[in-house]
Amino acid sequence: MAADTSAYDGDRSTDETKIHLASWEDRFFAWLIDVILVGAVSSTLGDIAGVYSFSVGGVPMTLPLLSVNGLGFWLYWTVLEGYGGQSAGKLLMNIAVTDERGADIDYLTAAIQAFGKAFLLPLDCLIGWLAMGGEYVRVFNKLSGTIVIERGESEPTGVEYVTPE
């Protein structure tokens, strides 16, 4: 979405651009896609190697809180979201992680925001929902200065956040 430049006086800081934040539903489905993809691979590899998996009724399972599996998720999100702002799930849902102004993030920022998702997701989301209600961020989004947006938005100079309806 382009900035409204009708009142442009040479100072770009007065322009506003709207960034459409991704809905919790889109974020959930992106996460679910990632968990299914990465979980299937890590479960299979873990089962073959005999590490970080256990069996429930003969079905091999893994838990994100187990360090090796959590590390796999953390590395996956750090690399993909640090490179282009999108994991496979985010790509399919047409959303992306950016900084608070809509710019790409680096690997360190991606690592910080991915940590909560990989190891502490229930607390990360719950605290974010309760403490930062209408901001559509998790705690680790806030700590890393990131947001999740609908893809296709331009990089803003002035920002007005538009939350999902």
UniProtKB/TrEMBL annotation:
InterPro entries: RDD (IPR010432). Residues 22-120 form the RDD domain. The chain crosses the membrane at residues 28-55, 61-80. The keyword Membrane applies. Keywords: Membrane, Transmembrane, Transmembrane helix. It is found in: Membrane. The keyword Chloroplast does not apply. One of its GO terms (cellular component) is membrane. It is a multi-pass membrane protein. Pfam families: RDD. This is RDD domain containing protein. It comes from Halorhabdus tiamatea SARL4B.
